[in-house]
Amino acid sequence: MLKRVKKWNFTVLLIVLVLMGTAIFLGCSSDETENGTVNGDLSSPSLNGRVTVIGSTSVGPLARVLADSFMENEQDVKIDIQEIGSTQGIQAINDGTADIGTVSRELKEDEKSSDLTEHVIAYDGIAVVVNCSNSVSDLTIEKIAQIFKGEITNWKELGGFDKEITVVNREAGSGTRGAFQELMKLEEKLPDGTKKSLITEKALIMDSTGGVKATVSGNDSAIGYISLGILDDTVKALKVSGVEPTVQNILDKKYTICRPFLMITKGEMSPQVGAYLDFIMSSEGQQMVKSEKYIPVK
Amino acid sequence: MTKEENIISIDKGIKSSVRGRKKILFELIVEKSFFLCACTAVLSIAVITVYIFAQGLPVMIKIGVIDFVTGHFWRPLENQFGILPMIVVSLIGTLGAVVLGTVVGLFTAIFLAEIAPDWLIRIFRPAVELLAGIPSVVYGFFGLIVIVPLIRNTFGGPGNSLLAVIIILAIMILPTIISISEISLRSVPKEYKEGSLALGASQIKTIFKVMLPAASSGILASIVLGTGRAIGETMAVLLVAGNTPVFPESILSPVRTLTVNIAMEMGYAQGMHREALFATGVVLFIFIIVLNVALNLTIYKKESRI
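^ Those are the sequences you sent over. The predicted structure of the assembly is below.
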């Protein structure tokens, strides 16, 4: 008898395991459908459901701060933010995975379409950063471009110490890299329409803004570029022709290495997406943009 | 036999046969569930293979398999897809790590199996096991804050380099090589060692001339497994390699491996660029298959010798 009970326990255990496995699979898929129907349901007056935000790693931190504050007031709305890249953000909004796609550069011509709406939520400066121990602190745009092209290879040519310059670049496709190359004229249009990057191929490549910051802060001869919003005292931001990269200088149009942060929506917005965007564009939201060291649009 | 007894025995027979049938049914259910579980692994590998090849092969053919595998330049936004530098770096990096890891790992295994006193083994073995459990991103972080600055300050250059990759990978494959080599050294019959010592050979001579040859197939298997881990490692390499997709000029130049190429650019890639990353995956997959065949051959050789 005892043996039998044990056996049955075993069978029950197996069945439970199988059921759990099925539940996990079903769980994943039902989650998606729930997501779809909630967002499609425009008639519901009360705000609830999910907003999926997918895109740029540079916009991510700002979108997260704004979302946290938004969710404090709207507790039934859940905002998911995924930072996987600008290009990926456009792809996600086009194939319907995201409710909002975030992009940290201007849209390319072939990415624009009539059913996509661009919302500029902020501007972001790009700071050129060096190690804190570097004595060089002010360069012209031309000199910076020459460093990134690999034409100037030693800090002593710029009045610094005698060390070979380590250029730190972002990976192909990064929004920050795209914006930086365009603003610094570090690209060349080829006859077939593609753009050739002029940044030296000897550059180290990091796949995130944080990676660039970590490398530059740990390497005394490195130079890189990061979003002004995540600039802190672990690295030193270069003045460009005497102008410090600050929010005020960008607003006064003295510091010119800056780019827009875009949120892209497709077709008609669901109420919760609309409310989130309204909050971002409100004076409270724009105040937060400013306190995060990004440049407000209003 | 009386009538009554007869009835009782028939009754028993029916009962036991019902119980028997239940038993058979139970056995069947359990067997099928085992089969289903076993299918998961096989099905996964089948789906992965089909998916990677379906995504990667068309673009490989479009670019040209030869152009793709022997191209010198990886400039995805300019439609130049050549992964030869990364293939070369993956091979050199793995080879370097395996050589370094095997020397250190094998000597550690010999020490643990033959020389170390019991109390030291009780400290060393858990330490090696712990090394195996550390997540690879932690190895990468360790490499970034310790090994990279060390290389930069000692040899110059940016620090993020092929050498850093080799060192970090060598450390990562140590546990695999140590534990499997130690087990195979311990499983060498005692008589071999005793015989050698009785003939007057020193302990070191016994280890190199008797123990190592006797355990060689197990040690070989550990090296092949270590190679598999080294060539597939991504996260730790990404943090220390520098990720420059060109041929390294020296061991101190920043490099990019095949795995890093996929991990690094998948987030932003689209269109042909994205497919080319899957094609990189195809090449890596073929490497892994070759390695697995090699592993099976060593095990097969070991078995046929016994």
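The longest strand of chain A covers residues 116-130. Residues 2-40 of chain A form the longest helix (39 residues).

Shout if you want it in another format.
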